[in-house]
Amino acid sequence: xxxxxxxxxxxxxxxxxxxxxxxxxxxxxxxxxxxxxxxxxxxxxxxxxxxxxxxxxxxxxxxxxxxxxxxxxxxxxxxxxxxxxxxxxxxxxxxxxxxxxxxxxxxxxxxxxxxxxxxxxxxxxxxxxxxxxxxxxxxxxxxxxxxxxxxxxxxxxxxxxxxxxxxxxxx
Length: 171
Known about the structure:
7 helices, mainly alpha, 64% helix, 171 residues
């Protein structure tokens, strides 16, 4: 058994790594030192890349607070609103030379909502597969369904983490 201080340090490092690599996959790259300062709140996020790093961690914290909930459309929509709303809170970071754009929250189609409800029902109530296998089903099905189009990969990673954490499979 590790001492509590070591566990907290490792949890922080794990969170920082998830945030960094998840955002690197989206081509939102900042250096690791900046990430450390953002996550310890020694520095405020400036610019699109830094905001996406910070918001990813904020989204993880939201999911940790709601870990007793089941997967649902409400949870997904709240997560999407946080991700989109926080990154695009200010237009000061966008100009003619920025490749990023100000996104508006997207609506789900009735077909997507039906597929997502079916997926969440399956994941929440499945007793045949272990939680790790279910986490991958959840992740890849979210990528297939593509809720909120370009945000689907980020949301899939976050809900994958949520499910693993819910079943004590993360550090």
